[in-house]
Amino acid sequence: MAFAHFARGLILRVQLRREEAEQSFRKANELDPDNIATLRSLVACLGEQGKDREALVFARQANEVDPVDAGAWGNLAMCLIQCRQREEARKAIDFAIGLDPQHPTNRYIRDNFEKYFT
Length: 118
Hints:
By secondary structure, this protein is an all-alpha fold. It has 7 helices and no strands.
C-alpha cells in the first residue's frame, strides 16, 4: 500500500495539488518510513508549499536512512537555506558535492549559495 500512496502523491504533485500530494506522501512514509524516494518527494512537496521547518524534519530523516544519497543532502541543504541556517547549509551542500561532484542540482545550489542569503 505504501507504493500506491507514493504513486498517488507523485501524480497529485504533477497536477499541482500539493496539499493532497503531501497527505499521500505522509501516508506512504507512515507505512514505509525508510523509503528514501518517499522522503525526498515529501521534502520537495513541503518545500513547494513553504513548509520549510516541516520539510527539514523529513530531510534529516532521509539523511539518516541513506547517508550517502547526494540528492538527499542537497534537499537538506535547501531546507537549511530556507530556514536561514547558513553554516549547516554550507556543510550539507559541500558534503553533497563530495558525494557526487557532477550532481546538477547540488552544483546549482553550491554555485548560487551566497545569493540565497542576500
